[in-house]
UniProtKB/TrEMBL annotation:
GO terms for biological process: chorismate metabolic process; salicylic acid biosynthetic process. SUPFAM superfamilies: Chorismate mutase II (SSF48600). It comes from Sphingopyxis indica. Keywords: Isomerase, Lyase, Pyruvate. Substrate binds at R17, R34, K45, E93. This is chorismate mutase.
Length: 102
């Protein structure tokens, strides 16, 4: 497996695209792990109503926004991305919760 150049080392669009593609593969691998935790939550939670936890969602979004800002990214843009990630995670967990109890 070859590793793409770091962004600051890229000199061509081919190198940029190779880097983006590598990051996307890494992100998918992390999402597989994150959704695995949603599978675990679906297994552990006894009540379907406990799947949607707005206080926890707010905490996750705040954590992501703070981490983004500390890293020099726009916290609102990252909050928007994380909002979609959390909503998809909730939908996944609800599906798994239903599947486990069908």
């Amino acid at each position: 497996m070859t590793f793409a150049k770091l962004p600051e080392q890229c000199e061509t669009m081919i190198e940029v695209r190779e880097g983006v593609d590598q990051v996307d593969r890494e992100l998918v691998a992390l999402l597989v792990r994150r959704f695995g935790y949603m599978d675990a939550a679906a297994r552990i939670k006894a009540d379907r109503g406990a799947v949607r936890d707005e206080a926890r969602k707010a905490e996750v979004l705040d954590n992501a926004a703070r981490a983004a800002e500390a890293a020099g990214l726009d916290p609102q843009r990252i909050r928007s991305v994380w909002n979609e990630l959390v909503e998809q995670s909730i939908a996944h967990e609800l599906d798994r919760w239903d599947d486990l109890r069908a």
